[in-house]
Amino acid sequence: MNTFFKTIVPQTTALGSTPFLRNFLLLLFFSLLMGLSALAGSKHVLLISSYNSGFPTFFQQVEGIKSVLDDKNVVLDIECMDSKRFFTAESNRLFKELLQYKLANTRTYDAIITTDDNALNFVLDNQASLFAGIPVVFCGVNDIAVALNQNSNPLVTGVVEAVSLKETVKIMVNLFPDTKTVYAIVDGTSSGQGDLKTYYKVAETMPNVEFKEIALHKTTYNSYKQQLQAIPEETPVLLLSAYFDSTGQVVDFGQCMQLLNENLKAPLFHLWEHGLGDGVLGGKIISHYEQGKFAATILQGMWLGEKIEEIAVNSTSPNRLMFDYEQLVRFGITERTLPNKSIIINKPVSFITKYKAFLGWFLAIIVVLTAFILVLSYNFFKQQRIKRILVQQNKDFEALNKKHLKQNEQLSAAQIQLEENEKRFWHLFENNPVSLWEEDFTELISCVKQVPCAYEDLPKYLDDNPGFVQKCAEAVTITEINKATLKLFGAKNKNDLKNNLSVTFNKKSLETFKKLLVALANNKLRFIQETEYVSLSGERIFAILYVFTFEKLSKSIVAIVDTTIIKQTQEELSNKLSELQQSEQELKSINEQLVAAKDQAEESDRLKSAFLANMSHEIRTPMNGIMGFAELLSEPQLETELQQSYISIIQKSGERMLATINDIIDISKIHAGQVKVNFEQIDIVEELQTVYEFFKPEATSKNIDFRMQQHIPEAYNLVYTDKTKLDSVFNNLLKNAIKYTDKGQINLQATVNNENYTFVVKDTGIGIPENRLEAIFERFVQADIADVNAKEGAGLGLAITQSYVKMLGGKIRVTSTEGEGSEFTVDIPFKRPSQNTKNHKFTAVGNGEQMKNAKFTILISDDDHVSIELLKVFLKDYSKKIIVTTNGPDAIKMAKNNNDIDLILMDIKMPEMNGFEATQQIRAFNNSVKIIAQTAFARPEDSRKAMAAGCNAFIAKPILKEELLAQISKLFSLS
């Protein structure tokens, strides 16, 4: 700083009057310095912003305030709530604690200015605890009710912020008179929806114009882009709010404008100043500059004697008509068509207008230089005159010399004061809590001037030449750094930091240095950038870099404000927000699962009820017949004819119960995936004829006309398929047709087309309601689940049929009209044998008289005594001896000790050892004895397993006498 004063005040000169001039300038400088110091401390104002310094409205409001207060003895401190990004109770608490700490450690503020609603609400909530007795002026407040309520608050006043939506819409229509439509872009924010309501109120006053909207929160960004692209070029669009879509994806205002500029060809209007100059044509917009200016003017009035309690809240928002010149040209709009008092930005200016300030300074400099020349000329002539009269003024010389001595004493005193001021400056520099650097940019500026490219190409040149950037970094001379800098970077001393300076740079700070070089190349005296550094211990430092240059950019003061704690707090808040969003998604997923589980439980309960009702009916009904008529058979002197009738009923009831049990077993095996397809060669025409003849008597007994039409050429008669499953398909469809048809006819049709066989069963029965067509293929469900017209059956036939059709590679479909009948169609692709393949048929053999004459020795091995007694009754006329065992080991023992045994009836499930293992051990010493496996396990795989174990035949329980005798006759070749 001594150097600075030595530069502007030379120590020696040839002019006799120069010491006087020097002393005068020093006194003038210190007087101005003291005046400025007094001026700076006159008023202390705290500005609380609702948002952050990156929000579009922030600097507009600050500039408006400073336009009034900058030259009015005011120190303006700024605190940002950043509530646009972090508006939670936690962030509000942290801001309050930080501000409370600062207020406790600084002087009391003379006034407070708040911008936007959140800041005002914060001050009102904490007025008694933090801001007691301090006048508060607000601006930018949208909640009119809250604002006007402050008329009763003696320490609060301000100006509201209200959109000029109606005036802007009228401007849109007036500037584009040929359009019959206007659009509004809106999202789900409360402010956006509030403006949308006002938009449609305006529509009521303009019936000749169609008002439309694009609701971003109801669509995705991709669809939003398509809607923007579809708007005609001459249709004006009003931007209300567009920050998030239906998926919750959020964009900031810059991204919002980027989307609009890339996809919207139509003119865009806005109600706020941000966006103007970035694609918005204009409108009657809220000027945050005017808001800030208005608030500062209120403060100015207070300091001039006006009482704040007498200043009413201004309910008229200071909005301005503003338009972008580039957009006006783009859409062919002339200035004379704009409303009066319109402000146009980006308008080209004349040379004089553009350099008006520069020309003023230039003329001022010319005037000063002229005056300086005149002063020098005057001094020169005065010196000549003094020389001429010097001889005559010898007597006055001593007095003048004394005067000069006195002036020198004053100059010495001023020099001492200057040194004290410089010491005070360096004391403040050294002990400032902010990291401060004094740097010499002389060599750096020289290095930048050596760039072999235009300044506009400098950023790319720096990216492509890292060596040059390193050279520039080494050209910076660090003259001083303070204690806060050593603490921030963890350095032991100044040399430690200087020697390890390269360690403190990372990718972000290197990019910041490049931007600084670009700023210096463009002669910018001030540079501010958010950046990062690395401490000597490797810790990441978030910071804001301030560079203030002077003396033609050769000197600089650098300040590094540590924002690491703020960044960490932001990251923690962001992480907590992410955790909350994840928890919300998990809860949503759990809710969806619970709803699905509830629906599934209700469906399971419905099926359970249907199943229990059907099973109760299908088991109790035949059991009623069996037990009832069995009791009647025990009556004495019962006529033979009635006995036979009762026995027939018992047999039919048993067959019905067996059919129900078989269906349950079949559907269980299908559900468990245990059913396999066993292909064999059959004659499909003969099979159809057998089915027809089997069901014909039953249909005739109900007076139903049962017909069959088959159109299968002889060449397609023989096919490979699973006969059992195909029989089950025909049987279930025809049984249902007969069951649900009380009159009319049933048709069985068969056709073939390209080796795909189609079978149709059509009836004139009760039909199926349309809403039950899919349900009839569910397990344990009949078409009439409410049992209004429920028929006999477990509700499993169609479920089994559908499963078997799919196993055979086919499809089943149904059409039906309630009250008129149903039509089931089955398409199955069959494999056909070659023409040389013969059709083998097997017929049962047997002759009752020959069997009676044979008289076998039979071993019955079964753990069920009822089954043993039944078999004894069946075989008493055909055996000479019957041996009984109840487990596997005893059966093996009897077979070893009785070589005359001709036939073994081997039960599969027995205690100690099952029938498969017992058969295998018997076959180890006897291959001639005939063994028939008899079991309640009736699966095809059980039959194959029995044959693999050594059995000669397989018969499933319940055992019919005729079937058992046929198997024995076949084994012993009795014909």
Folded structure, characterized:
- There is one protein chain.
- Among the domains are: 165-270, Rossmann fold (3-Layer(aba) Sandwich); 354-422, no CATH class; 432-562, Beta-Lactamase (2-Layer Sandwich), CATH 3.30.450; 676-829, Heat Shock Protein 90 (2-Layer Sandwich); 848-971, Rossmann fold, CATH 3.40.50.
- The protein contains 33 helices and 29 strands.
- Helix content is 49%, strand content 18%.
- With 975 residues, it is an alpha/beta fold.
- The termini are far apart.
- Helix 17 runs antiparallel to helix 19.
- Residues 1-18, 23-40, 782-794 and 835-847 have low confidence and may be disordered.
Quick overview:
With 975 residues, this protein is an alpha/beta fold. The strands form 7 sheets. Strands 2-1-3-4-5 form a 5-stranded parallel β-sheet.
